[in-house]
Design brief:
heterodimer, A: 82% helix, B: mainly alpha
């Protein structure tokens, strides 16, 4: 019989262990969320990330080793982005009828996201290097990284800030929107997608298909708008 | 299901190729998303083929962000003593952006209906 250390060293090398761990941690997160009565602050991404990060530290596993297994999940982000075309198509009549409110909300949400982040961060003494990486945080990760690089920020740091922004939006959106008494699924989804890209869109799909569709559109539009305006706005702050 | 996955990957691949060939700063999957939407408008029967797989994939969109999320944990230390200030700026600005976006949407929608 092999002892546990042998089995562990065998499993730790292949992708099976960390792929399985990622799915189980996520399922545990969704189970906790259901148990809480789908409370937004019980977020499955946050729970799964916390569990997995803890396990990696406790077992002394490098992120690269973890990612060899988890990359199969990560890879599906591409096809899932393409698949957003289906809810967009399903809601095309509603979206066409809402073009003007969408355009106004996109401008407001995108500008407030960039300006308020930079103004608050500078007021509380965040360094210029971090400010530059913070500017594109509401755009979807690949676009935000490209923008950060173009304006002299750090792509690695931007990736961290983008994901923190996504999780923050997914957690706080429902309480804020309920407080403001905004019940229109189009407005809720669109605001969430503008501020918090894909992770916000994932949360929006938990509210409704319409909310998810509008969030997906907002994510795509804000990717384009952020790429255009973030480089201009950052000049006001540096 | 295999057919619809192949179609999704095909559109992503076409998007990646177009982004590189044309030197666009948009990611390949976003271009693939736009191209698939245009195809659906031109040829609606594709919708029936794609819908079940797309819904299944999007129902678990959150899961797909977990690996990248685990990656941030090791970079969070690069923020050093600025972590709290940056986190405060992110939480406050995300709250303001969501409130602003949704409020403006509802107000413009109300004005238009008059």
């Amino acid at each position: 019989m092999n002892d546990f250390a042998d089995i562990w060293s065998y499993l730790a090398q292949g992708p099976l262990l960390w792929l399985t761990a990622t799915l189980i941690a996520y399922l545990f997160g969704t189970w906790l969320q259901r148990l809480s009565g789908t409370k937004p602050w019980v977020n499955p991404v946050l729970i799964a990330v916390a569990i997995l990060a803890g396990v990696l530290v406790l077992t002394g596993t490098a992120y690269e080793t973890y990612f060899e297994g988890a990359q199969f999940v990560h890879f599906m982000l591409g096809p899932a982005t393409v698949a957003l075309a289906i809810p967009l198509y399903d809601n095309r009549a509603l979206i066409r009828a809402s073009a003007l409110p969408m355009l106004a909300a996109l401008l407001a949400g995108s500008l407030v996201a960039i300006l308020s982040a930079l103004a608050i961060a500078r007021a509380i003494g965040v360094s210029t290097e971090v400010l530059v990486s913070l500017a594109p945080k509401s755009a979807t990760a690949p676009v935000a990284l490209g923008v950060a690089e173009a304006i002299g920020g750090s792509p690695t740091l931007t990736a961290v800030l983008v994901i923190l922004t996504g999780i923050t939006g997914a957690v706080i959106a429902s309480p804020i929107l309920n407080l403001l008494r905004i019940r229109d699924d189009r407005a809720r989804g669109f605001a969430l997608g503008t501020a918090s890209h894909g992770i916000g869109t994932a949360r929006a799909f938990q509210e409704s298909q319409t909310s998810g569709a509008f969030s997906g559109v907002a994510m795509g539009l804000n990717a384009i708008l952020t790429a255009l305006i973030a480089p201009v706005i950052i000049r006001l702050f540096t | 299901m295999i057919q619809s996955i192949a179609i999704l990957l095909g559109y992503q691949l076409a998007g990646e190729i177009a982004a590189r060939a044309l030197g666009l700063s948009l990611p390949g999957p976003v271009l693939g998303f736009a191209a698939l939407f245009l195809t659906l408008l031109l040829w609606p029967p594709l919708h029936a083929i794609m819908a079940p797989t797309a819904r299944g994939l999007l129902a678990h969109l959150s899961l797909l962000f977990v690996p990248a999320g685990v990656g941030i944990v090791r970079h969070i230390s690069s923020l050093g003593d600025q972590s709290l200030a940056v986190l405060a700026a992110i939480v406050a600005s995300t709250a303001l952006a969501i409130a602003a976006g949704a409020t403006v949407f509802v107000l413009v929608d109300r004005v238009m209906r008059r």
